[in-house]
Amino acid sequence: MDSIVNKLTEIEDAASAIVQHAEDQKEILNKEYDEKRKVFDDELENKTEARLSAIRSELEENTSRILDSQSDSSTELIQALQKEYEEKHTEYAHEILKRITEV
Predict the structure, then answer these.
(1) What is the dihedral of CA 51, 52, 57, 62, to 10 degrees?
(2) What Cα–Cα distance (Å) separates residue 35 from each residue in 24, 45, 62?
(3) Chain Cα centroid distance, residue 36
(4) According to the model, what pLDDT value does residue 5 have?
(5) Nearest to 60 by CA among 70, 48, 68
(6) CA torsion, points 7, 8, 9, 13, in degrees to nearest 10?
(7) Three-state DSSP class for 102?
């Protein structure tokens, strides 16, 4: 009877040791997983930030190019209108006077 109790005690001790070892391994694996996840998250964040920075830079460049183009177009239009006024302002004044006096 004592030998059976001794065997059961040995089996229980072995089972406890196995469970403890499994728990220790689980904890080690959890730490490894957390470290790998942190490294992955950091790399992903860096890549994302770099891509966002590139997109922002491209957007700013395109916006600047569009604004410059519009500014150039506006300047050209203003110059054309000023030139036309300088060339035809007397004609415009005569036309306005004619319309006023036609009543």
Answers:
(1) 100
(2) 17, 15, 41
(3) 24
(4) 86
(5) 68
(6) 100
(7) coil
CB atoms under 10 Å from CB of 30, counted, come to: 10
Token pair recorded at residue 76:
């050209």
Residue 78 in tokens: 């203003």
Q: Which residues, other chains included, contact 85 with Cβ-Cβ below 8 Å and sequence gap of 6+?
A: 92
For 8, phi then psi, to 5°, come to -65, -40
For the question of whether the overall pTM of this predicted structure is more than 0.85, the answer is no
Q: Cα–Cα distance between 40 and 28 in angstroms, integer?
A: 18
Report the sign of the C-alpha dihedral through residues 55, 58, 62, 68, in that order: positive
Alpha-carbon distance 87 to 76, whole Å? 16
In the chain (103 residues long), the average pLDDT of successive 10-residue segments reads 86 93 96 97 97 97 93 90 92 90 79
62: tokens are: 């395109």
